[in-house]
Amino acid sequence: MDVAVLVDIIKETDKNWRFIFESPLYDRINFISGQLVQLSIPDEEDKGYYHKRNYSIASWPDGTNRFELIITYLEKGRFSELLFKNSKIGDEFLYKGPMGIFTLPEILTRDVYFVSTGSGISPFRSMLNYIAENKVPTGKLKLFFGTRTEKDIVYYEEMKRLEKAIPNFEYVPVLSREEWDGAMGYVHDHYIPLVDKAESKPLIYYCGWKGMIDEGRSLLKERGFKLGEDIRVEIFG
Question: What does the pLDDT look like over 139-151, one tens digit per residue?
Answer without folding.
Answer: 999 999 999 999 9
